[in-house]
Amino acid sequence: MQYGLVHIAAGDLLRAEIASGSENGKQAKEYMEKGQLVPNEIVVMMVKDRLLQPDSQENGWLLDGYPRSLSQATALKEFGFRPDLFIVLEVNEEILVERVVGRRLDPVTGKIYHLKYSPPETEEIAARLTQRFDDTEEKVKLRLQTHRQNVEAVLSMYEDITLKVNGNLRKEDVFAQIDDALTKLFEDRKLNSGSLAA
Ligand code: AMP
Q1: 184 with 110: CB under 8 angstroms?
Q2: What would the CATH number be for the domain defined by 85-198?
Q3: 145-158: pLDDT as tens digits
Q4: DSSP 3-state of 133
Q5: CATH architecture of 1-83
């Protein structure tokens, strides 16, 4: 990944747990199928353990899909993890649903495609693409409901470090907005650590 950060997606951790066949995975799947938040007893420790791994500690991390509730944000703080930036991707519902329904995963490379906006490069890849069990119009609408119930409370924890990004634009233009902010952040940090070391 650009910037060298470790990408930690709460949903990916949960899907790996389901794939492992564990009891936690079985329980998590029931909530995920309803578009509801998986209970903190399962999610919080999972994310904490991943953040504590040496690669995250050394390179820094990008947390994706976490925290999704005030209690998760509080837990993160209590464990001593403080994000430098909180990025909110704002996308119109219609666009969001279209992106989710057309989303596909290449299980071999882990790359995410979109049937219309980012189609697979070859027939061979196209033939092996898979779809998440919750990437249907019905399920994404349930996830959006859950999101609306929690977003204000989470935002209130990060007011001073929030960056709102227009997610309706093309992928390249969305990335440019985030890239600008991250580049500034890393430059500031270089300056600061330079002065600290001196
Ligand atoms: P995502 O991969 O981010 O779209 O998440 C897929 C599903 O995993 C969500 O609809 C939730 O059921 C569950 N999930 C992901 N992140 C969290 C979280 N931080 N807390 C609780 N459940 C989560």
Answers
A1: no
A2: 3.40.50.300
A3: 999 999 999 999 99
A4: coil
A5: 3-Layer(aba) Sandwich (3.40)
